[in-house]
Specification:
Blueprint lengths: L1 E4 L2 E4 L3 H9 L3 E3 L5 E3 L8 H20 L14 H10 L10 H13 L27 H4 L1
Antiparallel strand pairs: 1-2, 1-3, 3-4
């Protein structure tokens, strides 16, 4: 086992050494170079965090659209302010809607007509909740 940071590598023989190296910002690796324990002081650049957070939220939104109809819609539990934030975070134009029901209607309309890239893969029919699910992929506009 060894401690590694940048181009520095030190052997680790005791639990006390392991703890000391971790506190100094080293990763602990096994003899094959695989990381056993990450440096607890590691951080991710904020720009990378934001990119991953937005990507995750976009994927959650797309997943929510294909949720089976029997499942409860998590948007129902949100108040109008939360729904406005959700719409803004997901690029959904709610126009002048200000009531919870009006904002929900706009969000559901946006879900029913998602704007996906032309090269987005086709969703298998087994994953669609109904036959009126939007067609995706190149040439989707001509099919409707």
């Amino acid at each position: 086992m060894f401690a590694k940071r940048l181009n520095k590598v030190y052997p680790v023989n005791t639990p006390q050494e392991r703890k000391a190296y971790l506190s100094r910002g080293y990763d602990i690796c096994d003899d094959d170079g695989g990381i056993i324990e990450h440096n607890p002081q590691k951080t991710v650049p904020y720009a990378e965090y934001e990119r991953v957070r937005k990507e995750s939220e976009a994927l959650r939104t797309k997943l929510a659209f294909y949720q089976p109809e029997g499942d409860a819609d998590p948007l129902e539990a949100m108040d109008a302010a939360d729904l406005k934030k959700y719409a803004a975070d997901n690029g959904i134009n709610i126009g002048t809607a200000s009531s919870k029901s009006g904002i929900l209607k706009k969000i559901r309309e946006a879900r029913a007509n998602p704007e996906l890239p032309e090269d987005a893969p086709e969703i298998p029919k087994t994953l669609r909740s109904s036959d009126d699910a939007p067609k995706m992929g190149a040439g989707a506009a001509q099919q409707e």
